[in-house]
Structures
1.
Amino acid sequence: MKMHKIVQLIIFLISLLLIAGAMLFHHEPSADSDLNINTILLSIGCSILAVVIINFFEYHITRPEVDTLKYISDWKLVSIFKTRQEMNDVTNKLLNKAEALDIAALGCKGLLNYQGDVIKQRLTKGMKIRFLIPTRNSPFIQQREIDEDAAKDEIKNNINNLVNWSQQTIKELNLNEEQIQIKEYSSLPIQSIMIIDKNLFTGPFMIKKLSQLTMAYQYKKGGEGYSYYKSYFNEIWNNDEISSKVEV
């Protein structure tokens, strides 16, 4: 039995004892005093009982909300976005000061088109990037193109463009090999994951929905959500049986 239930039970029993005492103990007030012990015991016992009853119902009515808040706190869930387009308003601001960027995605076409210059600027300041992409010739990519109603080879071409962008950026900015790394994995496309320093964003790939029109979640470092997806990303990245380095 949980501690708060034990405390409630003890208080409840005390109130019953006080009420029983008031009913069993007969005391007439003296001529010098109007004090009636029965009335006092009954009043105290009924007051405590009322508090216990109110507390009991209040606890069970609000418990789901309390549990929900606890889960949100434990996982440090910051936001839920209806689309990744809404999420981009937050990630774009974070990129301006980013020091590390990990991305598991299907080509990052929108990111490179709209934030390519910002990313290059951060790379000149020492930022490091890890791209985790599906194998370009995988049948899973072909299936994902069908699921998204994309043109044939559209996702494959987006991934190729990401690799080409990385190669050109390394040469253009004279970066070291550690600043932009790419690995490809051979399994089904994993969830979209974007880690910008102490913030992590993730969301599913849905059927008949473009990636940018799919919901996403934001977690803060220090919570279960960030730790869970960061570990997942690293497990795939560091497993040579699943992922392999793409030369850039």
2.
Amino acid sequence: MRTFYALIKNNLRITIMHKPISFLLMTITPIIVLIIASKMVSYSTTFVNVGIVDGDKTRASEAITQIVDGLDGIKVFKMNENEVEANFQSNKINTALVISSGFQDGLLNNSIEHLVVKGNEEQNVYTLLQAILKNHLLNLRNLGKISGGGMLLYSRMR
């Protein structure tokens, strides 16, 4: 171990004493490059902008809206159905969740129909929202099954 320590000490002394400029360039240059690179690379969080159209305005549609609104990394914009295409064109939203009238009644009758997730095919962000909502929608539908189609019992279960 002493031999190894003596070799390292000797090599450092030769490098620093006999070639000080070379030593400074070898140690300082990588540090400067790292500092410059870290300043040039910016870390920013981007949100997935989701437009929500709630045409049903029931407890089930409010639950879906609250689920999407509570997710990290998602910014929610409430809008009308006729504003959806304009917001896609202006890139204000990446995906849209359209809940049409009859959504809760469909859940009570064991179907998930009146909910549409729209998005741009190029961005493929809407598949993320579909995957997130899948289990929640199945849970709401199962509550509708258990309640036997009764609105009062369904409202109490939620």
